[in-house]
Amino acid sequence: MMWGYGYNGWGWMWLVGAVVLVCVVVLVVVLVRNSMAPSRGREAVTTGSPTARHILDERYARGELTAEEYREMLKNLGGGA
């Protein structure tokens, strides 16, 4: 007698292997999609420190500056108008 260690015991191994394979494939797909997707709710990572123009634009976007203040500071930076 084999007491469950014969063919019947190994008959389910193909199912376990298939489930593991599917899990690995799903994990790889999720990781690739997340790494390639644009970040949502996060600021883009820049290389280096932000420029004065970038900081000025952010302050204006947050409403910390009026349009007149923004134009004056932009003019002082040499950025136009």
Characteristic terms for this protein:
4 helices; 60% helix; 81 residues; single chain; 2 domains; 0% strand; mainly alpha
Blueprint of the fold:
Blueprint: H1 7-10, H2 13-36, H3 52-61, H4 67-77
- Please write the string of helix (H) and strand (E) elements: HHHH
Tally the helices.
4
- How many strand elements? 0
What count of structural domains? 2
**Which geometry do the CA atoms define?**
rod-shaped
Radius of gyration: 29 Å
Strand content: under 5%
Share in helix: 55-70%
Computed structural class = mainly alpha
Sheet with the most strands, sense and barrel status: none
Poorly predicted runs are none
- Average pLDDT confidence is 79
How far apart the termini lie comes to: 92 Å
Question: Mind explaining what this structure looks like?
Answer:
This protein has 81 residues and is mainly alpha-helical. It folds into two domains: 1-36; 50-81, no CATH class. It is built from four helices and no strands. It has helices at residues 7-10, 13-36, 52-61, 67-77. α3 (52-61) packs antiparallel against α4 (67-77). The protein is rod-shaped, with a radius of gyration of 29 Å. The N and C termini lie far apart (92 Å). The model has no long low-confidence stretch (mean pLDDT 79).
